[in-house]
Design brief:
- Belongs to the NnrD/CARKD family. In the N-terminal section; belongs to the NnrE/AIBP family.
- Its cofactor is K(+); Mg(2+).
- With 492 residues, the protein is an alpha/beta fold.
- 39% of the residues lie in helices and 15% in strands.
- It has 20 helices and 17 strands.
């Protein structure tokens, strides 16, 4: 499988395997370390040419080795450099020991570092492989550097951030810039790690693509590369049904707005026809607000079963503002052979027995997309949610495999996961998307993609991405009503 380092994300475990195979293939591992350390020094000089002093904090492993290489390169450039080491440098092994010997100057213990104005800190303590809380002496230095608001350049990942989960392990640096190697790690994109990296630079240290490809699991940043070829240009002879018919189920008479938001978004996202399915009690409320969206009375499971004879309806959205959990269960089970976006109350309807839903959608190609936020995710997957060893990506993939559905695990770092193990982390959502009705709009966009025939994973990934773009275009202070108008064409 081709690997594009601009999009691919590699876990720390995968990166360790890549480093190992690179060495086994005959590539000089110390040359790779030299490339990494030199890249760090170049970034430091480029970003802070007027620095009074570069302070390099070196850890007890290969991340520390990168730091020693950087220190030597900075010193050779004429900069003032101080090195502080965690642990006894005499205990270093392999390439890290060689790098320390190449530095060739006396250093000080980490605990003796006292931040002073004009320092630029280079964090080469732990990198992406840390899996336990940082030691107390490291935490004390992190707090001291933070209190002085000194710029920090992180080597690979700010120390204290778990490269697999993005979570902070006790304490961490807040970097102004991070230099990582070959590809990004999950901790660079998942929160809170994303906010702690500052600007991010990915440097190619010379490991061949074939070795990266052998250890890449299919995790990537969400973007148009994931649905390339699925966003078909419109046929000039296409009619509205050929562009896709989306059906959205409305809630009761006092809760119709959420479904209308979904329907409007589906229409703007490209569905040729959108119908709002409404119980009789809500028909008047919906009719008073609808123009381009059609209205259909669907009051019970029998009426839905009869409507399903129309095979031109390409996809359904169930859950936004729906309210009636028993009816939501009946509808979702009736739709088990159709493309469905299950959101909000549609998800909550199965909290007491999720297996009913999972078994109903277990056959054939994946055609169910679920869009839970944290609380809804915990209702359907309580054991997965409670496992502290799992990252957000791990949880989303485990849920997708169990449910036979594409999972859109919502949040500022939304993860889209497929039962086949593919996953993507979305990064383009502005913080002001966290507003009432935003998720209803997202469900409508995904529904439009399904109605147009896109596969479930691609439909969901494209929907999340377009939703983020619309939020950025609408700008801070948006309401959910603004989002549909801001939906841009889907890039092919």
């Amino acid at each position: 499988m081709p690997v594009d380092r601009d999009d691919s994300i590699i876990t720390p475990a995968e990166m360790s395997a890549i480093d190992r195979d690179a060495a086994l293939s005959g590539i000089d591992s110390f040359r790779l370390m030299t490339s990494a350390g030199t890249a760090v020094s170049a970034a430091a000089l480029r970003l802070y040419p007027q620095a009074l002093r570069f302070v390099v904090l070196c850890g007890p492993g290969n991340n520390g080795g990168d730091g020693y290489i950087a220190a030597a390169a900075l010193h050779a450039s004429g900069a003032q450099v101080a090195v502080h080491a965690l642990g006894d440098p005499a205990h270093l092994k392999g390439d890290a020991a060689r790098a320390c010997a190449g530095w060739g100057h006396a250093g000080e213990p980490l605990a003796k570092y006292r931040p002073r104005p004009g320092d630029i800190v280079i964090d080469a303590l732990f990198g992406a492989g840390l899996s336990r809380a940082v030691p107390d002496e490291v935490a004390a230095v992190m707090r001291a550097v933070g209190s002085e608001q000194l710029p920090v350049i992180a080597v690979d990942l700010p120390s204290g951030v778990d490269g697999r989960t993005g979570q902070v392990l006790g304490e961490s640096f807040h970097a102004s810039h991070t230099v990582t190697f070959m590809a990004r790690k999950p901790g660079h994109l998942l929160l809170p790690g994303r906010t702690l990296c500052g600007s991010l630079e990915v440097f190619d240290i010379g490991i061949p693509q074939r070795i990266l490809a052998a250890h890449t699991s299919g995790l990537s940043e969400n973007g148009p590369h994931l649905w390339a070829g699925q966003a078909h240009a419109l046929d000039p002879s296409a009619h509205k049904f050929k562009r896709g018919h989306l059906a959205v189920f409305s809630g009761g008479p006092l809760a119709t707005g959420a479904a209308r938001l979904s329907a409007a978004a589906g229409l703007k996202a490209g569905a040729g026809l959108v119908t709002l399915a409404s119980a009789s009690a809500a028909l008047d409320a919906n009719a008073a607000h609808l123009t381009a969206v059609m209205l259909k009375e669907i009051g019970d499971a029998g009426a839905l079963a009869r409507w399903l004879a129309d095979k031109r309806i390409g996809a359904f959205v169930l859950g936004p503002g729906f309210g009636d959990l028993e009816t939501a269960r009946q509808y979702a089970l009736l739709l088990n052979d159709r493309a469905l976006v299950l959101d909000a109350d549609g998800i909550t309807a199965f909290k007491d027995d999720p297996s009913l839903l999972f078994e109903a959608y277990a056959q054939g190609e994946t055609h169910l997309v679920m869009t839970p936020h944290d609380g809804e995710f915990a209702r359907l997957f309580p054991d997965i949610d409670a496992d502290p060893t799992l990252s957000k990506v791990d949880r989303a993939i485990a849920a997708a495999k169990r449910s036979h559905a594409v999972i859109v695990y919502k949040g500022a770092d939304t993860v889209i996961a497929s039962p086949d193990g593919r996953a993507a982390i979305n990064t383009n959502a502005p913080p002001w998307l966290a507003t009432a009705g935003s998720g209803d709009t997202l469900a409508g966009i995904i529904g439009a993609h399904l109605a147009q025939g896109m596969p479930a994973f691609e439909a969901a990934a494209a929907g999340v991405w377009r939703h983020g773009r619309a939020g950025a275009k609408a700008g801070e202070g948006l309401t959910a009503e603004d989002l549909a108008a801001a939906i841009e064409p889907l890039p092919a």
